[in-house]
Every structure is written in C-alpha cells, then in structure tokens.
Amino acid sequence: MELLQLTILSLVQGLTEFLPISSSAHLILVSSFMHWPDQGLTIDIFAHFGTLLAVIFYFRDDLIEIIKNFNFFEKNNLGVNLCLATVPIAIAGFIFKDFIEINLRSEEVIFWSTLIFGIVLIFSDKFSSNQKDLSQISLRDSLLIGFFQIFALMPGSSRSAVTMIGALFLGYTKSNAAKFSFLLAVPTLSIVFFGELVSINQEIFKINYSELIYVASVSFLSAICCIHFFLKLIEKVGFLPFFIYRVFLAVFILVFAR
Prior knowledge:
The protein has helices spanning about 5-15, 25-35, 40-60, 60-70, 80-105, 105-125, 140-150, 160-170, 175-200, 210-235, 240-255.
C-alpha cells in the first residue's frame, strides 16, 4: 500500500477517534472520495491499536489509580463503572456485527447519522446541568452511557459523541463527560482490537509488519495531540464547533456522494 494512503488513513483515525465527529465515517469517506482500494481489516485494526495505546498512555496515571482502587463493593467505583458501561456495546457488537458491515456502511447512512447525532450533541450540551463529576458516577449512569455507546456501531454517529451525549444528558460537566468517554475507550477499543485480531489469523503470513508499525505510530501520535487539545479546549469552546463541522460534513456528503 502507498505511503500517502497509509499516512492519511492513520492521521484520520488518530485525529477523529476521540473527537465527536466519527472516525469510521471519515475513514469510509476518505477512501471513497480518493478512490482508494480497501485498506483491509489488518490496517484498520492496527490504526485502532495506535489510538488505544494513545489513550492508555495519556491517562496512564488515572488508569493505574483505577486498577489499584478497583473494588466491586465500593460505591461509585470508577473501574467497575467503566467495565459496566462496556457491556452493552460488547453484546450488541457481537450480535449485530455482520448486519452492520453489510447494511450500514453507506454514504446515505453516514449522512443521516452525522446530521442527527450532531443535532443531539448540541442539544445535550445546551440542556446539560453541567454539575456532576466522575466521583459521582453511579452504576445507573454508567449503564445508561453504555447503552448510548451502542449507537457508535452506526458509522457517522461517533463513539466519543454518543458517550459524551449520554454523560451530558445525565448532568456531567463537559470535561468530565469527555474524560469518561476517553477512559471508556480503553476497554471498548481493547475488545475491538482483540476481537478483530482473531479474524486475521489466516493472514498472519501476509502481513507487512513495517506498514503496521507505521500505521500504529502515526495513529498514536495524532491521537495524543487530539486528546490533549480537546481536553484543554472543550470547557471553553463547548460542542458548537463540532456541531457546525458535522453539518458541513453532512452537506458535503449530500452534494458529492454518488
């Protein structure tokens, strides 16, 4: 695969995975509009692996504390809540994976999900009480955010967007909604990575390892930058810029999609 294609796809994955604008939609659209051949499942997996490493690295201190303090019997335990919030998408992804791959990876679906979830995002931002922090997160709240995360299976919705939407509707501040979404990416992306890794066992001898290391590295570095600046800016700028971007993206798809 050409270096330019690998670089752009890796950058797109790293820069969009943690923004509320949908990485899967951008990967599909970039390949479609550039008329590139499908990059294959292996490249996708290791692009996701790079973003998984990025969020683990960026929140390493938080994750160490979460692991050290993990306790099933403690009220509002963050580690338990993250595990619980992962359950709905793990079940739904297992059940509906083939259906989604066959029926939902179209530009029409991406157009509607980009537009609709953009509108829901700005409404959740507007009507959130913005009072709660992660020390207050309960099993109920975590499970509800987990059910919101199921929408992330639809290209164009954005895993980050739907989990932040859920947290905002429940009254969490923008920065805490974003942080919970990013921390939730660790178990979620881990399930995606190891689940899809199993499916490439027949291709193991065809893998170009230098390409995979490059893809993971570019995704990692771009995702680190994205997480850092998003957390710095979100309380100041809110979600309006991302709503506007999603509207423009939807219009672009409507005008140029074939």
